[in-house]
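Re: the request from the purification team.
They wanted to know what the chain is likely to look like in 3D before they choose a buffer screen. I agreed to run a prediction and write the result into the notebook, where they can find it.
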Amino acid sequence: MRKFEYKAVPAPNTGTKARGVKTTEDRFALSMTETLNEMASEGWEYVRAETLPCTERKGLTGSQQTYQNILVFRRLEAEALPLDRTTSRPLRAVEEVREPSPKPEPPVHESEPVEDAPRLSSRPPEGGRTPSIRAVED
């Protein structure tokens, strides 16, 4: 069974100023992108954004209810992660072990190396018809 740990961080309230980013929407999007990428670099996976009520004090005896926006992230717990064989530390999502890619298939005809096969163009011919492929002997 997979076990996750969760982390909630406050969502950005204002946008980040940067060269070439002029509108409020673009600045806010840049701020969100930076927050999401920062958390992802630490191995956290974005789950969702939440708006939650919060009761705050107002004056000496009063209170008011406000709403806070938070971003929720998750990642596998340390004991549920596979161990790195070289350091004996848990691997995070960023350091996931990947299976080796499958070996390429051998050529169909062993007598004809693949390197000598004719190259085909990805563009269609000028006449608009696709030519048939024929074996040509030298």
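For the purification team: The helical segments are 24-41.
Please add any questions underneath this entry.
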